[in-house]
Amino acid sequence: MAIFGTPFKKPQDPDNAVSVANEMIVALRSYNARRLSAGHEAIDIGIGINTGDVVAGNIGSPKRMEYTVIGDGVNLASRLESATKYYGVKILISEFTYSKLKQMPLARKLDLIRVRGKENPIFVYDVLDFHTEETFPHLPGVLRFFEHGYKQYRARDWARAIESFQEALVLHPHDMPSQIYLKRCKHYLTHPPDASWSGVWT
Prior knowledge:
By secondary structure, the protein is an alpha/beta fold. It has helices spanning 13-37, 72-87, 95-98, 139-154, 158-171, 176-190; strands at 47-49, 55-61, 64-70, 91-94, 107-113, 122-127, 200-201. It has a five-stranded mixed β-sheet. Strands 2-3 form a two-stranded antiparallel ribbon. A hairpin with an 8-residue loop joins strand 5 (107-113) and strand 6 (122-127). It starts with 12 loop residues before the first helix and ends with a strand.
């Protein structure tokens, strides 16, 4: 866990957190190239970032004290880190971090989710600045079709959303978020949700 904004808060803390996350993935890519050339397995990680109020201070026992943070804001960041595995992405940030950024990263609105232990859903964003043409072919085109598909998905226009996500996958067949939404839309096309459906994924 890395903490930005304690004990001293700065306006650029959210931007710094996202920047460091991107640099971590770039550094890991280089490190994994060396590992693979040496015959070792690659290391894979996901990063979750959230911005919010936390309790900061020295926590522990008299024999082992550690400066750290606890609270709902920390728990949400942990949930987002776990969610990177489900979506097949590297960096997930909450809407609370996204709204505080001074410089917008290359990112897509990924989903409206309700994480374990929380009632209120939040929007999450997939940060993509670390990618190259080799790691994510045709990225601008994929994002364009994904954005169309997501809007159609939210509007319950399943058939058109399917077409959009299929177009995204033509450009990049391994884009897992497009695969996930294609599967959801095909399910909803034959088993539409009831009128109370709000697009939230739990």
